[in-house]
Specification:
The structure holds 2 protein chains of 2 kinds. By secondary structure, chain A is mainly β. Chain A contains no helices and 11 strands. Classes of the chains: A mainly beta, B mainly beta.
């Protein structure tokens, strides 16, 4: 039962343009959502998060949008840089479940210069 | 300020053997969670430790066990290794009262 889905295995974007990574979830108990970036041979690096009481959170070039009615969230990276090329994971947690993270399968982002 | 550290970085074992992986949490953190990441998949939650007790457990067999020490560091033990246990094992630390977890670099386990 895949509760968090990232339906795009990969995304290719030109440097300077916007990257939009999408994530869908099925469990309405999820109340906290996170995005991680992962380079090969490294652990996931925390990027940005959003609580279910908000619909938007910004941190520099990164913005996360949450649409609770659609059970959908997205990560916007503007402007995209070649160093952003990595695997991006969406994760969700619920206080009800002790804040264990449930991850999507990841999206490979390639930013072309 | 040291982040999450894990040892060893790589490990090769044969079927049936036992393995112990180690994790030191980020300074100030009191909670450690372990995840298994198979190739091409997202990390899967194994279990979480707080105050030296297992607090949450994912869908993993009893062959997977752990421990947390008074200094908050943690160990993951896997007995009777199977080929399917080959994966990247990630440790994440956090504060018990907060949702955001910070990951270490992982231990790559290969079972032959």
């Amino acid at each position: 039962d895949q509760q968090v889905k990232q339906n795009s295995p990969s995304l290719s974007v030109q440097e300077g343009r916007i990257s939009i990574l999408n994530c869908d979830y099925t469990n309405s108990m999820f109340d906290y959502f996170l995005w991680y970036k992962k380079y090969p041979a490294e652990g996931p690096t925390f990027l940005i998060s959003i609580s279910s009481i908000k619909d938007k959170n910004e941190d520099g070039r990164f913005t996360v949008f949450l649409n609770k009615s659609a059970k959908h969230l997205s990560l916007h990276i503007v402007p995209s840089q070649p160093g952003d090329s990595a695997v991006y994971f969406c994760a969700a947690s619920a206080e009800e479940y002790g804040n264990k993270l449930v991850f999507g399968a990841g999206t490979i982002l390639r930013v072309k210069s | 300020d040291a982040g999450v550290t894990q040892s060893p970085t790589h490990l090769i074992k044969t079927r049936g053997q036992q393995v112990t992986l180690r994790c030191s949490p980020k300074s100030g953190h009191d909670t450690v969670s372990w995840y298994q990441q198979a190739l091409g998949q997202g990390p899967q939650f194994i279990f979480q430790y707080y105050e030296e007790e297992e607090r949450q457990r994912g869908n993993f067999p009893d062959r997977f066990s752990g421990h947390q020490f008074p200094n908050y560091s943690s160990e993951l033990n896997v007995n009777a290794l199977l080929l399917g246990d080959s994966a990247l094992y990630l440790c994440a630390s956090s504060l018990w009262i907060e949702e955001t977890q910070y990951f270490g670099p992982g231990t790559r386990l290969l079972v032959l």
